[in-house]
# Entry
Amino acid sequence: MFLYLLCRRGAFRAAGVVLATAALGAGCAVSAPRSAPTPTSAVPTTTGSTPPTTVTITAPPALPPPPPTAAAPPGALPNPVLTPGETFPGVTAAQVCQPGWATSHRDITAAERRAVFAAYGVPYAQRVGYELDHLISLELGGDNAQANLWPEPHDRVGFPGSQTKDLVENRLHDLVCSGRLDLATAQRAIATNWQTAPGPSTR
# Structure
């Protein structure tokens, strides 16, 4: 009887080994005992604060005011953007020195007159105080384009205006026609600044 029980227990153990082997062969997972998770602890971090840096900005010294300049009276010289000066293409000294050249080539429409006064902001009703003048005069080959015209105020005390410029134009014309000054130089001088161009006192 004792031998019989031993044989039965051995059979059960053998059957258990066979079943476990069969389960592994069939791809069944055999769970192993889980280990307890390792506890973690947060390490506090300390952030150091940097004290603010004070920057002192020194303002540069103020620049001295520019020295005063002697500007030409308003209207004494034209605006070079509006009136740079313009001549008839290819005009020669022989042509401008012919009698009647300036009279025969003067051609300014009423619309052009109004446009020139408007460009300079001068009310057309005040035109009596101005001469619609050619910067490069007709007798020096200047044309009638708006780029060569501007409302020039008349002379008044301490203010050289249109009447004074007429004398300069006549003097330059005489110099050109007598061969003492070439036409291009005369045109450039009066277009740059008629007040400094050779005038009636030039010898």
Summary: The radius of gyration is 53 Å. Residues 93-192 form one domain. The helical segments are 2-25, 93-96, 101-104, 110-119, 162-177, 183-192.
